[in-house]
Design goal:
- It holds the Pfam family AraC_binding.
- This is AraC-type arabinose-binding/dimerisation domain-containing protein.
- One of its GO terms (molecular function) is DNA binding.
- The chain has about 110 residues and is mainly β.
- The chain is built from 1 helix and 9 strands.
- The protein has a domain of about 70 residues: Jelly Rolls (Sandwich), CATH 2.60.120.
- Helices cover about 5% and strands about 50% of the residues.
- The protein is globular and about 35 Å long.
Amino acid sequence: MALSHAKSGDLVSINDVADALASNGSATLVRDDHIEIFRLVLNAGATMQEHSAAGAMTVQCLSGEVDFSCHGRTRTLRPGSLIYLNDAAPHALHSKQESILLVTLILHRK
């Protein structure tokens, strides 16, 4: 069964923090030719080793606290903070608490 993603004009709720944490609700919310938006739910202590995305991206912290490493620095994302990475910039993260991130990728799909 294919996953359902929001279509142009659809309303998407990203603030249902309790339900997302309870269900480990990581999910792709929007997928189109040149954009992908997903909610990433992380348990406390979760780590993602250095990797890169296939395009530019923003990462916004909706809840929790995440150490985000890129460009030789580590910054702590907290609710309301956002970080931008240019095309395919390597990055890593470590979740200090249960956390929810909203990730937006600008892709080069044809």
